[in-house]
Amino acid sequence: MLQAQTMIELKLTLRRGESVLLTLIIPVGLLLFFTAVDVLPSGTGRSVDFLVPGILALAVMSTAFTGQAIATGFERSYGVLKRLGASPLPRSILLAGKTLAVVGVEIIQVVLVVSVGYAVGWHPHGNPLWVGLLLLAATVAFSGLGLLMAGTLRAEATLAAANGVYLLLLLIGGVVFPLSRLPGWLEWVGRALPTAAASDGLRAVLQDSSGLPAADLGVLVAWAVGSLTLAARTFKWE
C-alpha cells in the first residue's frame, strides 16, 4: 500500500510541469548562470565550490517546501484529502507516501545538480554521511513548513505565499550570495533561516572539509520540530 501510494504521489509530482520547472530546471539554471557569470565577491573560493552546496539546499526547499505546500494546498481545496481520509488508506500511509515521494524527487535533484556540478569543475570534499544528515534535516524542516502553510491557508493564498517565501529565502538564505554581503540586521535574520543553515552546513562539509556542523544542524532540527508541531496542531483536512 505504501509503495503504491508513493509511486502515485511521485508520478503526479513529475507530471506537473510547473513542479518540474521549480524543482529541476530552476536550480540547475541558477547553478549554470552564476558559475558562468563572475559576480561572487572575493574570499568565497571558486564560484562552483560555493554555489553547488547552496543549490542543493535550494533544490530541497523547492521540493519539500514550495512544491509540497502548493500541491497539498490545492488537494485540500479540491476535497482530495477529505476523500482519501474517508478511504481505506490509513492517514499514516498517505503522509508517508507524500514524504517518500518528496525524497524520491530530491534524489533525482541531487543526482542532477551533482552531475552538472562535476561537469563545470566542482570538486567536493568532506564526509557524505554529514551531507545526507543535513539534507534529511532540511527536508523535514521544509516539509513541516510546507504542510503548516498548506493546512492553514486557502489554496490561492498558499500559492502566492509559497512562491513569495521561496523568492525571499533564495535572496537572503545564503544560496547564491554570502550572508556577509547583507546589511547587519538582515544578515542575522538570514542566519536564523533554514535555507541559510542548510547552505552553510553543506558548504562547510563539501567546500571546507569540516566535520559535522552542529550549529547549522541544530537550526534545522529546531525548525523541523517547531514547524511539524505547529502543522500537527493546526492542519485542516478540508
Model description:
- The model has no long low-confidence stretch (mean pLDDT 87).
- The chain is built from 10 helices and no strands.
- It has one domain.
- Helix content is 77%, strand content 0%.
- The chain has helices spanning 2-15, 17-36, 47-77, 80-85, 91-119, 128-150, 155-172, 184-191, 194-206, 214-234.
- The protein is globular, with a radius of gyration of 18 Å.
- With 238 residues, it is mostly helical.
- The relative contact order is 0.16.
- The longest helix has 31 residues, at 47-77.
Count of the domains: 1
* Secondary-structure element series: HHHHHHHHHH
Mean pLDDT: 87
How many helices does DSSP assign? Answer: 10
Largest sheet: none
CA-to-CA gap between the ends?
A: 24 Å
Q: What is the 3D shape?
A: globular
Please give the share of residues in helix: over 70%
What is the strand content?
under 5%
**For the CA atoms, what is the radius of gyration?**
18 Å
Number of strands: 0
Note poorly predicted spans: none
Q: What is the compact description of this entry?
A:
With 238 residues, the protein is mostly helical.
Top keywords for this entry?
single chain; 238 residues; mainly alpha; 10 helices; 0% strand
What's the SSE blueprint?
Layout: H1 2-15, H2 17-36, H3 47-77, H4 80-85, H5 91-119, H6 128-150, H7 155-172, H8 184-191, H9 194-206, H10 214-234
